[in-house]
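FAQ

Q: What does a record look like?
A: Structure on top, sequence underneath. For example:
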């Protein structure tokens, strides 16, 4: 069962490595870890109750501003990976999350992701109160 609380709680999301996720060496291609953690973040905010379609219809979107990533080990075809996401900090327009990709208990990838809330003109805006309440 997934825990979608934030703060000191961690949301978990599972993904299976498919052949298309690997490079010529048979390991997960480095850019695909970014796809895996994006899926986990999307699942996390959905389960919190943040409807990103409604948010976009209101002229607001989440935009990744910064990713600091560490590749720690290799994942391979057919591995089952678990992505753990937890909120590190929240400010006016910014949300920072820590994400870890694991194969069993082994960490294979770690990232700190900073996302900002942007309006339709591409400008950062304060998080709406209803979104802040969810987080």
């Amino acid at each position: 069962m997934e825990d979608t609380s934030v703060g000191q709680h961690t949301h978990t999301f599972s993904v299976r490595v498919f052949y298309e996720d690997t490079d010529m060496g048979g390991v997960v291609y480095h850019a695909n870890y970014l796809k895996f953690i994006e899926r986990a973040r999307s699942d996390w905010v959905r389960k919190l109750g943040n409807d990103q379609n409604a948010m976009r219809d209101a002229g607001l979107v989440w935009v990744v501003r910064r990713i600091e990533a560490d590749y720690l080990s290799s994942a391979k075809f057919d591995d089952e990976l678990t992505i753990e996401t937890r909120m590190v900090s929240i400010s006016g327009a910014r949300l920072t999350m820590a994400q870890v990709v694991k194969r069993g208990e082994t960490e294979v990838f770690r990232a700190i992701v900073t996302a900002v809330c942007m309006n339709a003109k591409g400008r950062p805006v304060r998080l709406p109160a209803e979104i802040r309440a969810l987080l």
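Q: Is there anything notable about this one?
A: The two ends are 20 Å apart (CA to CA).
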